[in-house]
Amino acid sequence: MDVRKLTSGPDAPIWQYLSNIAVSLGEGHARFVHGMLDYLVEIDRTRCNYGGARPWFRCPACGARRAVLYAPPAGDDPVACRDCLRLLYASECEDQFGRALLKEAKCQARLAAYIAKPKWRHWQTCERLTFERECSWVAVLRAGKYPLTCPNRRDI
Length: 156
Description:
Shape: elongated
Helix content: 10-25%
Strand content: 15-25%
Strand order of the largest sheet: 1-2-3-4-5-6
Number of domains: 2
Number of strands: 6
Order of helices and strands: EEEEEEHH
Mean pLDDT: 76
Largest sheet: 6 strands, antiparallel
């Protein structure tokens, strides 16, 4: 549940739905109905430099300010932040070969967006992107044998 995706104000709906969780915003708190469980989560606000306020959830488990709280799919556990629930990003579960493949795909996507050098892009940037893609491809090929490193070329 992302606090940035909830709408507040006088014209906001009473109940908002995020996937299978119903959310009702009150003064300084949010009420979540998830399965058979009903939670009250405090909303904290911080001032922004140019006026206004930024809302944050207070994690019920640790009390930290968080923009996103997670509800386990079973519905038995309380909502909490990703630290309390010990959640991992998909990239943290990848082995060396998987990380090399992800990096190579990212480099390939950045280069494939342009068939030729765009008018606004510097040649130095094009050469650096090409070099990064070559390094990532070498890393994919070597993933099982050598550490995932690429020489840092500053002369491009």
